[in-house]
């Protein structure tokens, strides 16, 4: 099992849930044989990569961090998994995450929390905390995560690695265990921006197995990095620098902006005026979609089934009572409420209307700038246990991430220094729909 399991147990990070030893060794042998035969090797030949446990990969259980799927063996590979392997990647195994990707700290996993490799008393962020931690600890060269309302970008910021949220429709969701289908996206974690561009190049594109993928041509992400950034207009949203922003983070973002200015970029003040409504809007829409998506876990079709019930409906209830953790139950209740007759117009429909306004904010801002730059998180990584008793405080940690999710635009987090205590700080770069190339260029200029 090599350095991965040693590292995991050695440091107690708890990032990997399962190692796909046979599959990894078979793939490594295949890459070696291709190299020996002088064949063309893919862009990820031999690169060790870990997969968030909400994506399916045959031969390894797909738990989504939940007891309800404990030991569940999926019958097919997610498209992202297929594409990585076709590019030569060696897939190491499945990575810990918040249950059904619901959380901001990776403390909602049924398989125990993940620790932040940069500070072991701190959370790695979530829900893809294990994916960020695995790259930060050097267990994998890259990992896959998913981002519904910040779950790639926020843990990347907390762990000091690069995390990319591709535009909605850019990367296939086929084989992703759904949380909120209109928001869920698959994307990479890497140690640097060039690796992120390489990963996105492999992952992006139309997939006949996911009707929401776009046939927009895939950009030349790696090639774009060679272009200088001078002349680019950097939008800076006043709403992202308000009360509650940690002063050390503010200073680090300002330094990053000064760096861009010295490279010839123009700083353009912009307004995203509905920002204050992003969190309530997100938590209505995400929970509504989750309550619908999670109906399928009924003890009949997948995973856990409660043993001793006399009727079918008692079995449904007991299975869900035993299988789902408290945060998942909270969200099913919230989402069911928002969708119920009599409340639908006041909550779900209203949230969809505000979602349109939040999207319009970005489209208007992008009329005067090429990318938008701001803080990724209001604070650095918080302590394990600090927010577990207060779900609203946990939701508020998503303040800078959920608007881009609702708008469908692309975003990324790039390390831009650390606090006096040595905790990583991430800067967020948001790009226009399908303009990952410009976003990555700016990311590399900051790095
Ligand atoms: N923290 C957010 C939530 O709990 C985002 C999760 C995600 O992006 N998967 O819903």
UniProtKB/TrEMBL annotation:
GO cellular component, one term: glutamyl-tRNA(Gln) amidotransferase complex
Amidase domain boundaries: 11-440
EC number: 6.3.5.7
Keywords: ATP-binding, Ligase, Nucleotide-binding, Protein biosynthesis, Transferase
Top-rank taxon: Bacteria
GO biological process, one term: translation
Catalytic residues in the record: 52 (charge relay system), 127 (charge relay system), 151 (acyl-ester intermediate)
Oligomeric and partner information: Heterotrimer of A, B and C subunits.
Full protein name: Glutamyl-tRNA(Gln) amidotransferase subunit A
Source species: Granulicella rosea
Native organism taxonomy: Bacteria, Pseudomonadati, Acidobacteriota, Terriglobia, Terriglobales
